[in-house]
Specification:
alpha+beta; Outer membrane efflux proteins (OEP); 3 domains; four-stranded antiparallel β-sheet; 11 helices; 69% helix
């Protein structure tokens, strides 16, 4: 059991040392899954989707409920202070006026001769005796009646509870709400095109990094082979120097070539390490991940790929984004114009309060329904709306010009990419022919050097020519791959 456990532990510790082999497709999948900017673009698409849904709700009825409590330092009164004082002295005032009226009536009757002065005096004396009793009763009854009326018109409204449910429905907003909904849909489309654009960019960067690593890996093997060639030549020349058939100058020349080859190999190794790190970063892997690519070990990369025959450039997400921007600018103009047009809305609701405002401030909850129409008509704004509409139209024209210019540039880019693809295939064919010539030249140089009919410099020249031919072949193969990637990116069909 202990031995088995030790075996598992050893295997687990050895796993990180194993190289992870990745193909181009697997690198693409990793990049699409782990690319942060692509994930951000997808999140922006979700934001645009929810924004569109939120904008659509503005066309629907909205219901709001409110409630509250208010304390007033004073009661709400239907009477002023003078009216309250008048009601409080209602009986006294009435009694005084009644007594005064009877006295005036007796005097008037005596003056008219209807009654004699003696009768008038007798009546006055009787009123003096009986009047206070009568006026007192009248005053008491009147004051009580006035007090009851005063109290009836008084309200206990220092503590007010209220609540309401309001419904609003826009009927005509100058076309602004419809334009806002269309603009929200366009914004969602723009976000979707942004995801496509970011996806294309991610695939493009991944393909570029992948083939760069493959190219540097092949150049690393080539630099190693070249270093072995010059080292073997250095060994042969050193032997010839000892035998006296070569000079020390020949040995120094070869030593310089060995140093140059070692330096070249070091540079390629450093570039390869950096390129692997960049590819790992694109794929979302740790920078120090030990990875190998499936195309690294191939001596010759397949180049018989189908050149896209697509001529339409509408697949480019950048163009679709610019077209969407043009349409959004037109809808923005409509929204600006709508803000200065008449607007009509329907309102309705139910109001409840305690005290009851509609039943003599009764101390209990009661409510009332209401419905109405609200009309807003802008009258004068110093031509602000006209200026804003003109500015929005100019912005729309600018977007249209930018779209037209982008189409011209993309068409030029596509044509250039097609030309570079054809040029890359031609260079590859020529490089493969040069390989055969360089191999034969190097073979003849080595044979002549062994037979003593060729100088050391001739062999070094043949080795240099062979290195250049091999390098050109690697560059041509990678250039074919990259030119096809550029063409697909230009056409917007990079998948």
């Amino acid at each position: 059991m202990k031995g088995l456990l030790s075996l598992f532990l050893f295997a687990g510790s050895a796993l990180p040392c194993l190289a992870q082999q990745l193909s181009l497709d697997s690198c693409r999948q990793l990049a699409l899954r782990n690319n942060k900017q692509l994930n951000i673009a997808k999140m922006k698409q979700d934001v645009a989707l929810n924004t569109r849904k939120a904008t659509h709700t503005k066309l629907l009825p909205h219901v709001n409920a409110v409630g509250g409590y208010t304390f007033f330092s004073r009661k709400i009164s239907l009477l002023n202070n003078e009216q309250k004082a008048g009601l409080s002295n209602l009986g006294t005032t009435a009694a005084t006026k009644t007594t005064q009226g009877i006295s005036n009536t007796i005097t008037s009757l005596a003056q008219q001769g209807i009654i004699t002065p003696a009768q008038a005096l007798q009546l006055q004396q009787m009123m003096t005796t009986v009047g206070p009793q009568i006026s007192g009763g009248i005053a008491q009854m009147g004051n009580e009646l006035g007090a009851s009326l005063r109290d009836a018109l008084d309200t206990d409204t220092r503590n007010v509870w209220s609540g309401a449910v309001m419904v609003t429905q826009p009927i005509y907003m100058g076309g602004g709400l419809l334009a806002a909904n269309r603009m929200a849909k366009l914004a969602e489309k723009l976000a979707s095109n942004g995801v496509d654009e970011r996806r294309q960019t991610t695939l493009y960067d991944t393909d570029q990094a992948y083939w760069t690593v493959v190219s540097l890996r092949q150049k690393e093997k080539l630099a190693t082979s070249y270093l072995n060639l010059v080292r073997k030549l250095d060994t042969d020349v050193a032997k010839m120097i000892r035998e006296g058939v070569a000079t020390r100058a020949d040995g120094l020349k070869v030593s310089v070539k060995v140093n140059e080859a070692e330096m070249q190999l070091t540079q390629v190794d450093d570039g390869l390490s950096l390129a692997r790190m960049y590819l790992c970063q694109l794929c979302g892997l740790p920078l120090d991940s030990n990875i190998t690519l499936s195309d690294e070990g191939k001596e010759t990369l397949p180049s018989a790929e189908v050149i896209p025959e697509v001529t339409e450039i509408n697949n480019r997400p950048e163009l679709r984004m610019l077209e969407t921007a043009v349409n959004m600018s037109k809808e923005a103009t409509k929204m600006v114009r709508a803000a200065y047009l008449p607007q009509v809305g329907l309102i309705g609701g139910y109001l409840i309060s305690n005290p009851n405002l509609f039943n003599g401030f009764q101390r209990k909850f009661a409510g009332v329904w209401n419905v109405g129409i609200v009309v807003r008509v802008p009258v004068w704004n110093w031509c602000e709306g006209d200026y804003k509409v003109r500015a929005s139209k100019i912005t729309s024209r600018i977007a249209t010009l930018e779209l037209s210019e982008a189409k011209e540039k993309i068409e030029l880019q596509v044509n250039q990419s097609r030309f570079k693809v054809k040029e890359a295939y031609k260079k590859l064919a020529m490089a493969r022919k040069n390989i055969e010539r360089a191999d034969e030249n190097l073979r003849c140089a080595n044979l002549g050097f062994k037979e003593g009919v060729m100088e050391t410099t001739d062999v070094m020249a043949a080795q240099t020519a062979w290195l250049q031919a091999q390098t050109q072949k690697i560059d041509a193969e990678i250039d074919v791959k990259l030119s096809l990637v550029n063409l697909k990116k230009a056409l917007g069909v990079l998948e």
